[in-house]
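Reviewer 2 asked us to include a model.

Predict the structure of this chain.
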Amino acid sequence: MFNFKKIYYISSHKQLSDDFGGYFPKEITNDNSDFTFEVKIISKKLQKIINFPDFIKKTMLATINDKISWSEPYLIFKKMKSELFKAFRQKKYIPRYLRTYKKYSHTKIDSIKTKFIELSYITKIILGSTLLTITLILILVIITMLTPLFITFLLFKISIKLLFLPQPDETTLAYFHDTLTKDGMIIYAQKSYGFSLENYSDLISHEHIHIIQSRLFNMSGIVEERSVKFTRSNGDCLSIVSGEYVRYIPYLLNINELEVRLHELICSYYLFSYKIPLNLFDFISLFANHNLSLAIYPNYINDKIQQGVLPVDFIENHEKNSFKSKHELLDMDIFVIFTSIEQEFHRPFIEEVLFTVYCQLLKYYGDEKISNKIANEIQKPNMYDKLYN
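Predicted model (structure tokens):
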């Protein structure tokens, strides 16, 4: 039997707790209201059943509102019918000619009943059989006419749902798609993982932060401002090294994507130390203790040792005190970001850009009080303001 999709529903608060290993950090309080989001795991084969040209998609997107329920026309008709019968029960609202017609029709029916009773037994059987045959033929004709319409409607409904699924390529693993479902995500099932929810925990964690972003910033009406991607025109405050990975920088430095990756790094650090940064010093320690730190930002580490922020034996003890990212893709993204940025900009990028991003993450976690408190340690204006404001 073929399995094309499976749907799960998850609490946002539970997902955040799961991100931190099942125990939400005791240093902060989640005061955000909880909500449930949908996780739809689908087969890539399902997505390839239909593939409409882009101009058709754009036309249909302009004419079809995703919030319309397929049951709405029926509910409207049902309500109208109910109101109509209610009005007819109150005779004072029925026009006089309709009341006269109602009385006349009852008289006519009684007359037909009397005549039918007076007919012979054989005549009744013949007449009844004829009427039954005509009724059955009419029912058959109606079914024959309506069946193709029903099948067409069913296929149209399925096609519309499939049409607005994002078209995957070989590298697409998951997708937050707010026009398909409210507070939901789509995950493309991998052959080795199947449709089990546990096998996609990292993807769900990633897309869940995007859902929180969408909820917060759609409501405040500034989602478009946050979606502006980093470009090389910001080069006056952040120099990018030319190389094979430079083409990924606009995507990775998009503020929405940067927040998600920092969240994944914070969770990785928490699973190692069972604490989260509560000030700038803690935040610097987090980046210093990452297992890739000496390889991708060594000058920054040396500067912090010379300044007395890190102990003199930090490098010697780094291997036993370091932590690893939750998954290899995160390590790859961190490597690409820091090797693409000139070393002289590593300090402001960590202490001004990423620390500001972390303050925003604390609001996503539900503790605006601590977020505002540690945000006072950030001097302004800074690199974050120049890049994103």
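The longest strand covers residues 5-11. Residues 121-163 form the longest helix (43 residues). We have added this to the supplementary material.
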